[in-house]
Structures are given as structure tokens and as C-alpha cells.
Amino acid sequence: MAEKLLFLTGKLAEPSLRKVLHEMGPLPFEYRIHQLGLSVAALMTDKMIARRLKPEDIADSDQIIVPGRCRGDLESLSKQLGLPVVRGPEEVKDLPIYFGGERKEPDLSRYNVNIFAEIVDAPERDIDSIVERARYYGDNGANVIDLGCLPEEKFPHLEEAIIALHEAGFKVSVDSLGLDDLRRAGKAGVDYLLSLTEETYHLAKEVDAIPILVPAERGSLASLERAMELMDKINRPWIADPILEPIHFGFTNSIVRYHELRRRYPDAPMMMGVGNLTELTDADTSGINALLFGIISELNITNVLATEVSPHACRAIKEADIARRMMFAAQQDSSLPRDFTADLLVAHERRPFPDNAQEIAELANNIKDPNYRIKVAEQGIYMFNRDGIMHDIDPFSFYPQLDLKDDTGHAFYLGAELARAQIAWQLGKRYTQDEELQWGCAVTKDEDDLTQQTAEGTTLTTGKKCGTA
């Protein structure tokens, strides 16, 4: 007779738990899932379980599986309940591994958001430069190349640029405050126009391009709705953009407008321009993009306008691509956006220190050769060989203790490795000796990357730096 397992979980993790168990296929056990009535399963404790579980909840069960982060004395809890209570894996997605199988790799091939990548200085570029920049954006995930027109600056090669981008295989939009630019673009066959209002919507009667509609008066949802209604009257497609405002200049109210527009028009195609946050906030854009695309996912916004103007936003298009895929996968899984990809974890990592101080000390005791090993734990940097172990948080503190016998090459190598180890410890990143630190999508690696040789003969790869497209 198959063993009967009872899985305890919380509200947020329950859908994901059900999905993972279902996808594991035929199982050598029977199971039930019991939701304990708390939101986050990781906050579960032994006392909470004992208090909330009723005898009928555990009836006809042989074993209770609790989340891996559940705190408390499970041995005492097992005696109290009369059933063995064991910790499962820390992550729901690792259940297949826990039961002897293989974890299913997340599917990040799908998304439901189109990225419009704006070339903000298009009038100042020649055709070759425009196409080159478009290819860079396309390689990073852009679906539409947006040609940004500059106020009071002529764009004599606008039509030629649209034709060249179409020939290169891109969909094209034109972004301008001037009706003349938009009219020229429409007649040249552009795919989208940014932006029309209730006062300028009539241009859509003259051209085939799909307009992005914005309020004629900034912040006026009523104005935007009137533009949508006017477009419906002429039976033409449109995309609505309530405009995302910068922080302290209407940001919260603009988010409310997006929410209200979706509530009133559940099926309306919508756009959000994220540059007012990624460009105008001194914070890493990877986190800003993750949060905004979470909102975009919840509101079913299917178009995003993104830019890479500020030097600190030089990965914004790629980050947007990763964020849309991660959020779509999480939505499809009915799960939190965790453990799908680490590409947006640029400065930190969720599990930075795989070894603790005791494990490192045990490893050091078994070393029989003079080569130095370097490990990083929560308590700092550890360096050891057969002669003993050293521990500090400052790389310079190790130097007086090293016996390098004037070996400058080895000294240089250890200095580089200790510097990496210090950065890893300070930021909370994983350090592996002879390997570069991982910076998510902030540093890309490709065929053109340079290689370098360490003092110990290890070949290291250096990533392409930001802004070299």
C-alpha cells in the first residue's frame, strides 16, 4: 500500500505546490495538501503547526511534509502529533529532486509583452547607425524599434530610416510631439505612432499606423477615454497609455490611473513607458524593471516603451526582456517570481554562502599541499593550505601571513582572488575560486570577450562592459 503524505503549505505557495506535484506524474505515494491559513509558507513554525492542525486534518496520513524553511523542533512536533514530521526542500520547485527525480527547468521562452525600444537621438544618427542600434536592441529583446524625434530638430531622413528598418526586419514606431513628423512617418508606412490625443486622433484617419493614445491634459484619464471612444467611432485599432510619471511628480497617482483604466476596460490594449522610472531614479534598473513588470503582468499591459539613455540604464532593454519572461512564467505557474532566473539579481544572490565556517574548517584540516584555497562564508574570507587557516574580512590582512618566496605572479593572483572574495562577502554574492563573480545580465559574455591567464594557469573570461553596443 502506497504511503500517504500530507503536505503543509501557505496561501501563496499552494497553487505552485499543486502544479509541481501534478507535473511529477505517477508517484510512489498518495498525497493531500493542507493550507494552514498563513500567507507565506516559510513563516511556518512547529508551534503554529501544532496550534492550527486539527486531528481530522491529519487523519489517514502516514507522514507530514513541511516547507524546508519551517522553523522549530520537528522531532517534538512529531511526538505531539503522533506522526513523523519532516522538512521538505526550501523551494517548491525542488520537490522532484527531493523525491529522487529531476527538477523541471523553467520555461522562459514565452512572454506576452511587446517591448518598444526607443532610439532617442535618431535624427542625429545616419541610417547605418540607426540600423546598428536597432540590431543591438533587437538582440536584447526589442520587438519594435521606436524612432524618437527631437523637439525643434529636423529629421530629413525619417522616411529613409523607416524603410531601412523595415528592410532589416523590424517593426517601427515613431515618437514625436509634432504632427508633421507623425504624418510623414504614417505615409512612409510606420507601424505605430506615439502619440495621439483626443485633439489629434484625426491623423489616424489618414494613415494605417496604430496610434498610442495619451491624455491631451497630463494626468487626465477622462481625456484618454475620450480619445479611445473617438478611435472606436472610426473603427480603428489603438493602444492606450495613461503615462507613468516619475517619483514625486505623480508616480503613485499614475499607477492608480493604470489600475483604474484596466478596471473600466478589461480588454483594452495598453502601454506603459518605463523610462520615467528607470532613467530618472538613482537605483539599479534591474530591480526597478522587475517591480514594474510585476505591475505590468498583474494589469495585463501588453506593450512597454523602454529606453537606454542614462549610463546607469545601459542594460534596461535586456532587463525588460528578462523581466517580462520571468513574470509570464510565474503567472502561468501561479507562483511567486522566484527561482526562474538569476539574471536580474545583479548586486546580490539569494544563496551567497554555500559553506559555513565549520565546513570550511573541516575542509582545511584535510588539505595536504601548499596551494592556497579561498572560501567565503557569512563570517568573512577564509584562506588555507596545509599550514593552517586564516580568516579576515580585509584582503590586506592576509599578506603578512603569506609565504610566497618572492613569487610575484602568485602574489598577483592571490591579490586578485582576495579582492573578488571581499566583493562577494560585502555584497552577498557567491564566490568560487578561479571564477568570475556572476553579475546577472549586467555583464554579458559572447564570442568577442577577451580572455586572460591567471598566475596558476587558469583561463578566465571577462564580460562585455555596459554601453559597448
Structural features:
alpha/beta, Rossmann fold, TIM Barrel, 3 domains, 4-stranded parallel sheet, flat
General description of the model:
Helix content is 33%, strand content 16%. Helix 9 links the parallel strand 9 and strand 10. Strands 10-9-8-7-6-5-12-11 form an eight-stranded parallel sheet. Strands 2-1-3-4 form a four-stranded parallel sheet. Strands 13-14-15 form a three-stranded antiparallel sheet. The protein has three domains: 96 residues, 3-Layer(aba) Sandwich (Rossmann fold); 220 residues, TIM Barrel (Alpha-Beta Barrel); 105 residues, no CATH class. Helix 2 runs parallel beside helix 4, helix 6 crosses helix 7 and helix 12 packs across helix 13. With 469 residues, the chain is an alpha/beta fold. About 3% of the residues have low confidence. The N and C termini lie far apart (62 Å).
Number of separate structural domains: 3
CATH superfamily descriptor of the largest domain: Dihydropteroate synthase-like
Helix content: 25-40%
Task: State which percent range the strand residues make up.
Answer: 15-25%
Task: Please identify the structural class as seen in this structure.
Answer: alpha/beta
Mean pLDDT: 91
Distance between the termini: 62 Å
